[in-house]
Amino acid sequence: MAAESENLTLVQAVRDGLHSEMERNDDVVVMGEDVGKNGGVFRATEGLYDEFGENRVIDTPLAESGIVGTAIGMAAYGMRPVPEIQFLGFIYPGFDQIVSHAARLRTRSRGRYTCPMVLRAPYGGGIRAPEHHSESSEAMFVHQPGLKVVIPSTPYDTKGLLTSAIRSPDPVIFLEPKLIYRAFREEVPDEPYEVPIGEAAVRREGSDISVFTWGAMSRPTLEAAENLEGEVDVEVVDLRTLSPLDEETIIESFKKTGRAAVVHEAPKTGGLGAEIAATIQEEALLYQEAPVERITGFDTPFPLYALEDYYLPEPARIEDGIRDAMGF
């Protein structure tokens, strides 16, 4: 008998993943600003309060440090909290708790305690939001040992990766690309399932150049690759997990093509594109035919509405970057 499935958007897959794990494990609790009665600002937790009650779907004060610190305490004593930070740009008051405590708890206690916490946050631009609502600061968390950093780009991966994150014994930063929360639908199994953390997905096979990306940038990258069909045979690799990085898939793809580009909406300097380029240099230098092209946001604060579309990499700019790499 075929497994039951439902055609879901990405944000619905978040809700489905939370529901499945809360139903399976009473230690899973959801907490954050407006996640309860209102169902979250993007309705990612809609209906959970009515089903599981106020003790497991907890509306918190507007205090990110308190939200994260409370969740760390819960996790240390055996619960599996899933705190939501309403937008990634609001996370900075809680940053100290994340890097000073959540990431270090296992090491500090010599393994006596772990921190099975999943910190969810919508991230990225493109929705015409005010200041602090469009950040892509994932590199800050990748730089911190002790944290896993996961960014899905499809509804199927969202539920499976969120399930894996909640079941992980260590803290996971789970960033959700809000630009594509409702951009498309995909069949998602009703039953719980896991997508392994730390494994990239090759979204499009190619032989001329490897393009590495994640989150909302996966869609314009795939569009650019399709637009270049007949001119450049583009392989698109969706990393899905930024820490731990799937170096094996990156290097295997690069050895096949000899050229690479990285697409991300975060600023260029200090972004993951630099880490990927360095990894390629260290592991596959003799296969390299051209410099690694970085197609990214700019080294400026994220702009407001009028300039937002110029800031984000879009298919035409991605195509130009791929052509630059091919023309070297």
TrEMBL record:
Keyword Oxidoreductase recorded: yes
UniProt key word Oxidoreductase: yes
Cofactors, names only: thiamine diphosphate
GO BP terms, alphabetized: organic acid metabolic process; sulfur compound biosynthetic process
Give one Pfam family, short name only. Transket_pyr
Keywords (A to Z) from UniProt: Oxidoreductase, Thiamine pyrophosphate
SMART domains in the cross-refs: Transket_pyr (SM00861)
Query: Coiled coil where?
Result: none
Top-level division of the source organism's lineage: Archaea
Q: Name one GO molecular function term.
A: oxidoreductase activity
> Which part of the chain is the Transketolase-like pyrimidine-binding domain?
8-183
Q: What is this protein called?
A: Alpha-ketoacid dehydrogenase subunit beta
The uppermost taxa in this organism's lineage are: Archaea, Methanobacteriati, Methanobacteriota, Stenosarchaea group, Halobacteria
